[in-house]
Write a structure and sequence with these properties.
binds 5-S-methyl-5-thio-alpha-D-ribofuranose, five-stranded antiparallel β-sheet, 12 strands, binds magnesium ion, binds adenosine-5'-diphosphate, three-stranded antiparallel β-sheet
Length: 417
Amino acid sequence: EERRKYRPLDEKAASEYLAMVAPLAERLGGSPQDWNIKEVGDGNMNFVYIVVGPRGSLVLKQALPYVRCVGESWAMTLERAYFEANALRKEFELVPEYVPEIFHFDHPMAVIAMRYCEPPHIILRKGLIQGIVYPRLADHMSDFTSKTLFFSSLLALDTHKHKMAAAQSYANVEMCRLTEQVIFSEPYMEAPNNRWTSPQLDEDVRALREDIELKAEIAELKARFCERTQALLHGDLHTGSIMVTETSTKVIDPEFSFYGPMGFDLGAFIANLILAYYSQDGHSATEGGREDYRGWILQTVSDFWTSFAAKFKREWDRSRDSPGDAYVPAVYNSPEVIELAQKRFMEELFCDSLGFAAAKMIRRIVGIAHVEDLESIANVDVRAKCERRALNCAKLLMKQRRKLSSIAEVLALVQSQ
Ligand code: ADP
Ligand code: SR1
Ligand code: MG
Ligand code: MG
């Protein structure tokens, strides 16, 4: 009975906990004194232990009843571990090559044990800061997103399955509410959570809060985020949620997972690549250095979108024998009408993705939870310059997204800032 009650772990308690869960203890091999346990959580939310034993290794992740980067003053539901476990399982079903396998989930303890993405895997954001090229990244991430989004949507599922899946993830309310607050509201108002490079960006922040066109856009995006039940999203698909080597890509941390608009995941990945692009001046020895690397980042944005669109369409075409309920074959009964439906769908998704990408960039510069790409730039004037370019790009992206008709135009806009 005791074992079923929630208690926060530390390294010692984690070891005792693992000793009580036979399949995990067996996986590690030897006995608890042989296990090497280290807390490595560098995210904003949870505690993560890497455990290495004589036979094997694992990662133990526990949610605490608050937001880690703020502290106990911001209470947060433990249920996020349940939604993370469910999403990891679903993603593993759809794309096992890109997701760490779950070994164990303990609901009362809010604990997940999963496969350790071993070194040389590192967090993508850290690789981008170091200027490392990942030649398979666009291919892998377009695989991950096209499959997870397509196969959880009404394009692949019948209405019953789609509604049931949506209902199950719909209860991740607290996490959605957090996102609504920190991405779609606080950056556009005065809020104690907000932070920016001051005084350098004071004027930029004032202008942002007075930009009524931008506020009209963010209102639309917020409504889409809150109201659109399109597909099972990862929900926090930034470059800190992706672990990489040159040949392997693993997506972790889907605790914000819910049924929402596909563009929110696509936009998250694109936004974080663009932030990495603008931060390069802060990491190169000379201003304007790392030109080749910046070129690679933009090429990756382009390859990602192009491959995503092609793979998503391929799944759609392939599913014609057993389609979901979105496009009934008797109605979509000619190549012309299918082509038109697909074209409209992809145009809307592109526009959504750009809007969400912009929103995600803005929050990382003026709101809570900044990104290491920019935060690690020690010279504040250089950092502010990078941030201003990113902010201006995001404002244009959000306002002009309906007029942008290709990824090449988006890259031109990024380069123009
Ligand atoms: P949070 O929800 O707090 O952001 P994450 O799931 O992102 O927590 O994990 C925090 C850190 O723990 C990651 O940045 C990564 O370094 C490490 N980590 C998490 N899961 C794994 C894993 N399966 N394999 C290796 N390292 C991991
Ligand atoms: C309190 S905001 C914390 C942020 O970290 C998570 O990874 C999400 O991005 C969230 O918005
Ligand atoms: Mg994380
Ligand atoms: Mg997380």
